[in-house]
Design goal:
Elements: H1 2-33, H2 38-47, H3 57-70, E1 74-80, E2 83-90, E3 92-94, E4 99-100, E5 107-108, H4 113-126, H5 136-139, H6 150-154, H7 163-173, H8 184-194, H9 211-224, H10 228-237, E6 246-247, E7 286-288, H11 290-301, H12 308-314, E8 326-328, E9 333-335, E10 343-350, E11 353-360, E12 365-371, H13 382-387
Antiparallel strand pairs: 1-2, 1-12, 3-4, 5-7, 6-7, 8-9, 9-10, 10-11, 11-12
Helix pairs in contact: 4-9, 4-10
Length: 410
């Protein structure tokens, strides 16, 4: 009897040791996979090689027309199957000082930042540091709303009000410092103290607004014990070789250290100065280049940043589709159509910047337009999409069942 007991105990010990060893081995492999090598740098350099003499003539003519007829001012790039077909810097970085854009100019990504924040959250889920079903109150007990989970924040179903308008109103009425940046933690404190009315109940409907990803930014800081900028640099930017991508907040910088200025109202006369609203991050606050967004696409696809399971979840629409085709996943807008390409994308619009970042997952096409003069030029990209036989990424181009386009834009 004792002999059998001893044998069973030994067998159980061996099983547990094997399981632990296997888990540690898997964790080690996962960690090693995220360490960059010289081969990565070499491959990335080859990916970003571009010879203007061999640039796609059709795209060149299209971009020239977009600039002359519709006023596009900014940087753009189109890549297919790991090769840049065309890229160009068009116009001014800072009209007041007559500084021209270069292809390596860093733009405030505005809401394209949400794709990075979503990536960071899914990394923390993979690491077991949080769950999609975690309630915000787990991290911020004074949070005044019930039933809001990480998953609802990621998919814009929290029902929260937009903090930007809320704190802007407070700061103006109370004559607070409009230059000093506000941290995510400070915004969370104001929300806890003032308890603004929500827009609707949690999980009632899709309502796009910046509060969702500002709160996610705060959760990243709470869970990791790092500033959002530190976590993103260590776990997203560096592993993906994004050497020209940074988080810039007016809580950390008195003046944002980039040369590209946002121009508002379709006029170079309206240069937008950063203020206290450029402090919170997660919903915005990442600055990058067209080249680094190509690399971001590469390292999402090859598993460096996230597993296939996490990406599949992020690229699944979690809302009622708009016009039957347009949806929102976890940090990504998307186009879904029967017998049509799967496209994930995000737009951005903030303080004189307006962008679109498009990834056709079936045709392996990346299209990037980063603009620093807000106008309607990016509503005129239909012919470019048609040229590549892609879905047209403009809600008005389709009709179908589901919700109608509404106030869900950046």
């Amino acid at each position: 009897m004792n002999f059998r007991y001893i044998c069973s105990a030994l067998a159980l010990s061996v099983t547990l040791l094997t399981a632990c060893s296997s888990k540690k081995s898997e964790e080690k492999k996962a960690a090693e996979k995220k360490i960059r090598t010289k081969d990565d740098d070499k491959a990335d350099s080859l990916l970003l090689v571009y010879n203007p003499q061999k640039g796609d003539k059709w795209i060149a003519d299209f971009v020239d027309n977009l600039h002359k007829k519709y006023g596009f001012n900014g940087n753009m790039l189109v890549a297919k199957d790991g090769k840049i077909l065309y890229e160009k810097a068009v116009g001014w970085a800072d009209y007041l000082h007559r500084d021209s854009l270069t292809i390596n100019s860093e733009f405030e990504l505005a809401s394209i930042t949400k794709t990075f924040t979503g990536t960071a959250i899914m990394q923390l889920v993979e690491a077991g540091k949080l769950s999609l079903n975690d309630n915000v109150k787990k991290f911020y007990p004074n949070f005044p709303y019930e039933g809001i989970t990480v998953k609802l924040l990621l998919s814009h179903r929290s029902g929260m009000m937009n903090y930007v308008y809320f704190i802007d109103d407070i700061w103006r009425k109370e004559k607070r410092n409009m230059k000093k940046g506000v941290t995510n933690q400070e915004v969370m404190n104001v929300i806890a103290e003032r308890k603004p009315n929500p827009y609707t109940k949690p999980d009632n409907r899709f309502h796009y607004n910046n509060s969702n990803f500002m709160v996610l930014g705060a959760i990243i800081e709470k869970v990791t014990g790092q500033r959002y900028s530190q976590y993103m640099m260590e776990h997203v930017f560096k592993p993906a070789g994004l050497k020209h991508t940074h988080v810039y907040s007016t809580t950390e910088y008195e003046k944002i250290p980039v040369d590209v200025v946002g121009h508002d109202r379709n006029s170079f006369r309206y240069s937008v100065a950063q203020n206290f609203l450029d402090g919170p991050v997660g919903d915005k606050g990442i600055y990058s280049t067209v080249h680094d967004l190509v690399l971001f696409d590469k390292y999402l696809k090859n598993g460096r940043l996230l597993s296939k399971k996490s990406l599949d979840s992020a690229y699944t629409g979690h809302n009622k589709p708009i016009n039957g085709h347009f949806n929102y996943g976890y940090g990504w807008r998307m186009f879904d159509g029967e017998k049509m390409d799967k496209v994930v994308y995000h737009t951005g619009w903030w303080h004189g910047f307006r962008h679109i970042y498009v990834r056709d997952l079936n045709k392996n096409i990346v299209i990037v337009f980063l603009g620093n003069l807000t106008n309607g030029s990016l509503m005129h990209l239909d012919d470019l999409y048609k040229h590549f036989d892609m879905p047209i990424i403009r809600k008005g181009a389709y009709h179908g069942n589901g919700s109608l386009p509404g106030s869900d834009e950046d």
